[in-house]
Design goal:
The protein is an alpha/beta fold. The chain is built from 19 helices and 23 strands. It has a six-stranded mixed β-sheet with strand order 10-15-14-13-11-12, sandwiched between helices. The protein has a six-stranded mixed β-sheet with strand order 18-23-22-21-19-20, with helices on both faces. Helix 8 runs antiparallel to helix 10 (162-187) and helix 14 (366-373) runs parallel beside helix 15 (387-393). It is elongated, with a radius of gyration of 29 Å.
Length: 574
């Protein structure tokens, strides 16, 4: 009689699986809780202790680590010496192993879980059984995902193919690998203080045991470890990359997926929201957790632009909207409402906004939807969409509408590929502009360096400009008022070029820069850039400072009665 070993924490579908295995002639062998669930359903079950000859001990810490189980799993069916060894010791074969692991991830996601309780959720026997069955995949079917139970039963009705066995093996080893990653990432956030174990003050733990907003695979926001393991899981193939001749795909971090313990669950397709168009979030996994409500398939460049637009929108607590083209903003604005902010951002450069990507940090209501559909927009992302508003957006059938949780990321590590290697860095944060800038409340490092100090409206405009400027490709100089960008000179080889591009854009749009403020993402190496800003009409400028010619640049500002603020922090974006 073939045997199946069952030991699951997540008992979803286990009774139906048990019935299916019994009906196919299998003997069920199960551990404590799983055995009770099957017995309560009226199924015949052999306890693990009856197979091993030893009782479960130490509150279940020891129950499956025994040759009577591992021998039956690891024996190679095509090796007479392996089978003879089983016969000598009275060990029977195990043909199916169904395991999912202790809910460590669920425990780690609760900050109130005591350290000792967390340690008890580190599964020992389960990973050992999974790895043993995966190693001997030619003879043993190993299942770690309840969604595969029906597939298992279907395969048993014929002859399980080698391809199916290999698929289950790979998924099983990914399951244990992700589980171990979750444990190590969680322990990296727990410090030994004297004789106590305390979670470091780095914000709440995510569901994978790492701090919220932290890149998976890295232990801490500031820890660039000697070894980093990154595992990705494909969401879907994309039609092509930046150009039609380039293949491309969309991945999410797969070190740990959502749910109490879903580390083996496949995500072959992006979730599509129900007709209620209730928004879903990407607070734990970025655009890997976004929800597409409608529209054409998202492209590679759409995804890059959605990311770029959202980064700027997330800088603002008040209603804000951003229109992006090719990862640079055409316009960014705040407003009294989401609709007001969108119209102001769009009108900052109506020509460039055509076919743009929009991010709004408020739910899309009817007024906002009406404003959006009045312009040709490729894609829009927001925290959610009101049902009435979705009816309006749905008239633009090709426009992509994406929802996401707009919780600002806290710290973390970002990865970027280069030829044959990867780069890692801490996420750039415009921390110096989180709170309002006033003469009495300037954050550390922010200071006035000119004779003339900014007026109240200039302070507000400088802070607005600084938050947007940090997300524009370098070199950049931008011009704004207190609530909207007026002209953006992005990605130029010199600061003078950046100013000239911005002036050209303003002239083309019929926008006056007189009385504006300017922001430069890095210092002015010579006074010519500052002179160009003054000539354009700006009355105040914000920049990091730090040039060997700062004194020359400050003198130029004083000559032209500009107020200038140094932040002490550069925000390059390449």
């Amino acid at each position: 009689m073939p045997r199946a070993l069952l030991s699951v924490s997540d008992k979803t579908g286990i009774v139906d699986l048990g019935r299916g295995l019994v009906s196919r002639g299998f003997e069920l062998v199960a551990t404590g809780g799983t055995a009770r669930a099957l017995t309560d359903a009226g199924l015949p079950v052999t306890g693990v202790s009856d197979v091993t000859g030893f009782p479960e001990m130490m509150d279940g810490r020891v129950k499956t680590l025994h040759p009577a189980l591992h021998g039956g799993i690891l024996a190679r069916r095509d090796r007479p010496d392996d089978l003879a060894a089983l016969n000598r010791h009275g060990i029977g074969l195990v043909d199916v192993v169904v395991i999912n692991l202790y809910p460590f991830v669920k425990a780690a996601s609760n900050p109130a879980t005591p350290f000792d309780a967390l340690v008890e959720e580190i599964d020992i026997g389960g990973p050992s059984l999974v790895r043993a069955a995966a190693k001997n995949f030619r003879g043993v079917l190993v299942v770690v995902d309840p969604t595969d139970y029906a597939r298992l039963l279907d395969a048993l009705d014929t002859t399980p193919s080698l391809a199916f066995r290999y698929e289950l093996m790979r998924k099983a080893l990914a399951h244990t690998g992700a589980y171990d990653t979750a444990i190590s990432a969680t322990l990296a956030t727990i410090d030994l203080v004297g004789d106590r174990f305390e979670r470091a003050d780095r914000g709440r733990l995510r569901a994978d045991g790492a701090p919220a907003g932290q890149a998976r695979g890295f232990s801490r926001a500031a820890d660039l470890s000697d070894r980093v393991d990154v595992r990705l899981e494909k969401i879907r193939d994309l039609r092509y990359g930046e150009n039609p001749h380039q293949k491309a795909a969309w991945y999410r971090s797969a070190d740990i997926t959502r749910g109490p313990l879903d580390v083996a669950r496949p995500f072959d397709q992006l979730r599509v929201a129900p007709s209620s168009v209730e928004g879903r979030g990407f607070s734990r996994a970025g655009l890997g957790e976004a929800t597409i409500l409608q529209g054409k398939e998202l492209s590679y460049t759409n995804l890059l632009d959605l990311d770029a637009a959202s980064r700027i929108a997330l800088e603002f607590d008040e209603p804000a909207a951003v229109v992006v083209k090719h990862t640079n903003p055409c316009g960014a604005a705040t407003g009294d409402s989401a609709a007001d902010a969108y119209v102001r951002a769009r009108d900052a450069d109506r020509l460039a906004a055509f076919g743009g990507i929009v991010s709004i940090n408020r739910p899309i209501d009817v007024a906002t939807a009406q404003a959006i559909v009045s312009t040709f927009i490729e894609a829009v992302i927001a925290p959610s969409v009101d049902a009435d508003a979705h009816e309006i957006l749905a008239k633009k059938t090709n426009m992509r509408v994406v929802t996401a949780d707009f919780a600002p990321p806290a710290g973390g590590i970002e990865l970027r590929s280069i030829l044959g290697a990867l780069l890692a860095q801490e996420r750039d944060e415009v921390a110096e502009a989180r709170t309002p800038w006033t003469p009495a409340t300037l954050p550390e490092g922010v200071k006035v360096v000119t004779k003339r100090r900014p007026a109240a409206d200039e302070w507000a405009a400088l802070r607005f400009a600084w938050r947007v400027c940090a997300h524009v490709k370098s070199n950049t100089v931008i011009f704004t008022d207190a609530r909207r960008t007026l002209a953006i000179g992005a990605g130029q080889m010199s600061r003078v070029d950046a100013v000239n591009v911005a002036v050209m854009k303003a002239a083309a749009a019929g926008v006056s820069l007189a009385g504006s403020v300017a922001a430069s993402d890095a210092f002015f190496p010579f006074r010519d850039g500052l002179d160009a800003v003054a000539k354009a009409g700006a009355t105040a400028v914000v920049q990091p400072g730090g040039s060997v010619r700062d004194a020359e640049v400050i003198a130029a500002a004083d000559e032209q009665r500009l107020a200038m603020v140094f932040t002490g922090k550069r925000h390059f974006r390449h």
